[in-house]
Design goal:
The protein is α+β, with helices and mostly antiparallel strands. Helices cover about 70% and strands about 15% of the residues. It is built from 3 helices and 2 strands, in the order ββααα. The chain has helices at about 15-30, 35-65, 70-80; strands spanning about 1-5, 10-15. It has a two-stranded antiparallel ribbon with strand order 1-2. The longest helix has about 35 residues, at about 35-65.
Length: about 80
């Protein structure tokens, strides 16, 4: 007796006792705090990174459009 997994045209057979052992280990692992909170942490981390990048891009656009030294006409006067 066992468990057969079919995916993308491939068959994978596993003895039932081995599958039950793996299932029990999986349940114990996901009860560990790190793994329990990982999905929420990962989503927050990706969101936080996206917000930081968005903020940096906005500041960069603002500086490029308002920075005195980057204006070609004003820059020449500044360097003289």
């Amino acid at each position: 007796r066992g468990v057969t997994h079919y995916s993308n045209g491939e068959l994978d057979y596993q003895d039932l006792s081995e599958w039950q052992r793996d299932q029990e280990m999986y349940r114990k692992i996901i009860q560990i705090s790190f793994f329990e909170k990982y999905q929420r942490w990962k989503l927050f981390s990706v969101w936080k990174s996206a917000m930081r990048n968005q903020r940096v891009q906005k500041c960069s656009r603002t500086l490029n459009s308002h920075l005195f030294a980057l204006d070609t006409t004003l820059c020449e006067a500044l360097l003289k």
